[in-house]
Design goal:
The complex is a heterodimer.
Chain A (H helix, E strand, L loop, with lengths): L1 H28 L13 H10 L6 H13 L14 H36 L4 H15 L2 H15 L11 H32 L1 H8 L4 H29 L3 H7 L5 H9 L3 H29 L7
Helix pairs in contact in A: 1-12, 4-5, 4-7, 4-9, 5-7, 6-7, 6-10, 7-9, 8-9, 9-12, 10-11, 11-12
Chain B lengths: L1 H21 L1 E6 L14 H10 L4 E3 L5 E3 L2 E6 L5 E6 L13 H12 L17 H5 L10 E5 L2 E5 L7 H5 L9 H7 L15 E7 L3 E6 L13 E6 L3 H9 L5 E2 L7 H4 L6 E14 L9 H9 L3 H8 L4 E2 L25 H14 L8 E8 L2 H15 L3 E8 L1 H9 L6 E7 L6 H4 L17 H11 L4 H18 L2 E13 L3 E2 L15 E2 L4
Parallel strand pairs in B: 1-10, 14-15, 14-16
Antiparallel strand pairs in B: 2-3, 4-5, 5-7, 6-7, 8-9, 9-10, 11-17, 12-16, 12-17, 13-17, 18-19
Classes of the chains: A mainly alpha, B alpha+beta.
Chain lengths: 305, 526
């Protein structure tokens, strides 16, 4: 397996390189540049600014300079936050997004797996109907509806939680819950489906026929195979959650990096777009690798060597 | 017994807590600055930070009038070309150094240095040789600014500029601590490095979270600065700021979502809607075959029901009847009246239909015109409503919508355009700052490509006129000319929307939307 992991890591590098190259050139096709604002700059000033960022050089030369700097760990200057380099901006926000996304993910995994299993074990009973209703509600209600409603109830009406900001544990509650709810719902539905499937499989029926206790059968045998679809979902979902959500960040005014995915593209903040793409691409590739490796742990039929 | 101790503790603690927390002023801002180097800044939200960190030669008063700042007085030569500023003896930097005329010379030279690539250098182009220095045609020391001694600064102008003092209130006119900029390079803006001479000094800066400032004890007027600690909190989303304000987490929201204004009226005096020094307009390309006819342009303006737009489509905006907004300085009798604004909407519509009929255009024989705007809910709603009004006079609209960067890049590069949305917020309070948009040599901003030598010569004449009332009359003539020709079709005057906590005293709303924190205080309880 180690051999396999090593091979996969080796393929990550050219994939990332291809993504970086493609993004670099695609971005430049978009009309306008980082300094086109409502108030146009005097042509001479624009020229000076572009020269100071090296934007007046041929595109191909800019590309090689960028790659050269990137290999040294420098993602270049941000065009929008001129006092900082892109990696500094991302380093400030990423821990916050990871904390937020990671907590939501953990919550989704624990609660979703639990609820999904309970629903499957009580198929078509009241508990099942209740959980499925909750899950459907969770999937169909987007963050930007849940978050302001939670704020209205807990911050503005009862004043028990803060409405905005980041830093204290109480400030984490509403954003984490808003971010986690749809994920809990998705995991619940996935888990319910796969658990039902697992419970019908031959080896589980055999185990139950032997009279093994239900907790043992579900907890040890059924859970293993039932977790596989959830895991497949969680790989890309983890990458998306941990890179922040612009909706949640804006509603709760959190200093994460989710906003940059949208604002940097709109502002033509070229280096920041590159930075965000690199982070997402890396996370997606890494999480997919982790998921594939976890498959071997959960499902003995999967072998990579 | 124990319970009473506990209650006493709670009372004392909560009292102490309310006092301690009351000292911090949480000020919502529109966003984070691009940089804290004021030569790299351009927006009003950055201007707010700079007004608190730095004191220029002149500053804003609590109601945004020009008052002496680091310069306690100044002389202007009779020809209006030489300004001599005398700096206060007690003007100090936040590290205790004296603020000298050399700091200003250094700052202005750095501003104009092409290598600085300052976005707003153009604002101080009235300074002698500034433009040439900025374009690299002259060396930096040739800029018309020099220090006679530590406390006397002479600025020479290219030509008499009656609004020069107004221009100096802008953040580009503020000084820099020469020593720290030279030794620290671009790191001089970091907390702990930044040396400022205003009422506040930078304490910390967390991106997208807050900028913390504390009172600068070396500030010359520190004894009258009431608020000790100030947190600027950036809100990209206006609705979020409103929620934070309602939860008591910020004292001020610097901007509000238009759709919430009606609901927020319950806060009465806390909600401030005041005219703002800006105009929202459509530029009509005067070189376009169809739009080159001033009568057609006039009909297009006539038929727009601006009252309806500002009531139903974009609440809070003010119907505009001129390019120069209301409440501007150096324009005592205001913009000239345009005749059709006195007519009823129905009459205006009839006349517009008649004009178009003479050109052979009617609802049944319409022409198609392309309207270009940058994406955004309010821009879209306004464009849709105006297209509907124009359909009455036989103009069918097709849309070209781009995001802001693409929209303005297109306009800048002089792409094919018929009608384009634009807006202008005054950098300083003077009608010239709006009327210059239509000068024929103003290629960057004259989206209408309006070219009228008569207008240009009026603007030149105004620039050379030192008598402010005579100058105002010339500018009125010029504005009358463009209102008749309608290369720009003014739609709204901007308004500023602010929520101010009742705990804050002396917040005087004004047309510049400037409220330096040094004049604010917390209401004394009890």
């Amino acid at each position: 397996m180690l051999n396999y992991a090593f091979k996969r890591i080796l393929t990550i590098i050219p994939t990332l390189f291809a993504i970086i190259t493609l993004t670099f050139f695609l971005m430049r096709i978009a009309p306008g540049g980082p300094f086109d604002e409502e108030r146009p700059l005097a042509p001479a000033v624009l020229e000076n600014i572009q020269a100071s960022y090296g934007l007046n050089k041929p595109l191909i030369e800019q590309y090689f300079i960028y790659i050269g700097n990137l290999l040294q760990g420098d993602m270049g200057p941000s065009f929008v936050y001129r006092d900082k380099r892109v990696h500094e901006v991302l380093a400030e926000g990423l821990p916050i997004s990871i904390t937020l996304g990671g907590t939501a993910l953990l919550l989704a995994l624990i609660i979703g797996v639990f609820l999904g299993s309970i629903a499957a074990l009580n198929q078509n009973k009241k508990t099942d109907v209740f959980i499925v209703t909750f899950a459907t509600f969770g999937i169909t209600t987007p963050n930007y509806v849940i978050a302001p409603i939670l704020t209205l109830i807990f911050a503005l009406t009862f004043s028990i939680l803060p409405a905005t900001g980041w830093g204290s544990p109480s400030q984490m509650v509403l954003p984490v819950v808003s971010l986690a709810l749809p994920q809990i719902a998705i995991v619940t539905r996935l888990m319910r489906g796969s658990m039902l499937e697992a419970l019908k499989s031959d080896h589980i029926r055999t185990a139950r026929a032997y009279g093994l206790p239900i907790t043992h059968v579900v907890g040890k045998h059924a859970m293993r195979s039932a977790l596989l679809p959830v895991l497949s979902y969680l790989g890309p979902a983890a990458a998306a959650l941990m890179t922040g959500s612009i909706v949640i960040e804006q509603i709760f005014n959190l200093p994460g990096i989710g906003r940059y995915f949208v604002t940097s593209a709109l502002n033509r903040d070229y280096t920041m777009v590159m930075g965000t793409v690199i982070i997402v691409a890396t996370l997606v590739l890494v999480f997919n690798l982790i998921v594939d490796l976890l498959y071997t742990v959960l499902d003995p039929r999967v072998r990579y060597d | 017994m124990r319970l009473s101790y506990f209650i006493t503790f709670l009372v004392v603690f909560s009292f102490w807590f309310s006092i301690a927390s009351a000292q911090i002023f949480y000020r919502g801002n529109d966003g984070d600055p691009e940089t804290l180097d004021h030569h790299g800044t351009s927006t009003t939200s950055e201007g707010r930070l700079m007004d608190d960190l730095y004191s220029g030669l002149v500053d804003f008063s609590e109601d945004a009038k020009v008052i002496p700042g680091t310069a306690e007085r100044w002389d202007i030569s009779p020809d209006g070309l030489t300004y001599t500023f005398y700096l206060r003896d007690d003007a100090l930097w936040s590290n205790g150094d004296s603020v000298t005329a050399h700091d200003f010379v250094f700052a202005y030279q750095r501003l104009m240095d092409p290598l600085t690539a300052a976005k707003y250098a153009t604002l101080l182009y009235p300074i002698k040789n500034a433009e040439k220095v900025n374009l690299g045609q002259l060396s930096v020391p040739e800029l018309g600014v020099r220090a006679v001694d530590n406390k006397t600064l002479i600025i020479q102008l290219e030509q008499a500029t009656p609004y020069f003092l107004e221009q100096l209130t802008h953040q580009t006119g503020k000084p820099l601590h020469q020593k720290s900029v030279e030794t620290l390079g671009d790191q001089f803006v970091k907390p702990g490095n930044l040396v400022t001479n205003g009422a506040y000094v930078l304490d910390s800066y967390t991106l997208n979270s807050r900028i913390v400032m504390t009172k600068n004890e070396y500030f010359y007027d520190a004894e009258n600065v009431s608020i000790e600690e100030l947190h600027f909190i950036p809100f990209e989303d206006r609705s979020t700021c409103v929620r934070a304000w309602e939860a008591g987490e910020v004292h001020v929201c610097s901007d509000l979502p238009a759709q919430d204004l009606e609901r927020l009226r319950v806060y009465e005096d806390s909600l401030r809607i005041v005219p703002y020094l800006g105009t929202y307009y459509y530029a009509l390309n005067t070189t376009d075959e169809f739009l080159s006819d001033p009568e057609i342009r006039r009909a297009m303006s006539m038929v727009i029901d601006r009252e309806f737009l500002s009531e139903e489509i974009w609440p809070g905006m003010i119907p505009a009847q001129s390019l120069v907004p209301l409440g501007i300085n150096n324009y005592p009798s205001g913009s000239p009246e345009t005749d059709y604004f006195n007519m009823s909407m129905l009459d205006r519509e009839d006349e517009a239909i008649a004009i178009m009929a003479r050109k052979g255009i009617s609802k049944d024989r319409p022409v198609t015109v392309e309207l270009m705007y940058n994406s955004g809910e309010n821009h879209k709603n306004t464009a849709t409503a105006i297209a509907d009004m124009w359909s009455e006079i036989g103009i069918n609209i097709t849309y070209k919508i781009r995001d802001a960067a693409a929209h303005y890049a297109y306009l800048r590069d002089l792409g094919e355009v018929q009608v384009a949305r634009a807006g202008w917020i005054g950098d300083y309070s003077d009608p010239y700052n709006f009327l210059f948009l239509l000068e024929s040599d103003n290629t960057g901003f004259n989206y209408a490509r309006y070219n009228n030598p008569e207008y240009d010569s009026l603007m030149d004449k105004a620039s050379n006129e030192l008598d402010l009332s005579k100058r105002a009359k010339i500018l009125q003539q010029a504005e009358k000319m463009i209102m008749r020709a309608t290369p720009f079709l003014p739609i709204f005057y901007y308004s500023s929307f602010t929520l101010v906590s009742p705990e804050i005293e002396n917040w005087q709303s004004n047309v510049m939307n400037k409220n330096p924190t040094r004049f604010l205080s917390f209401k004394k309880s009890g």
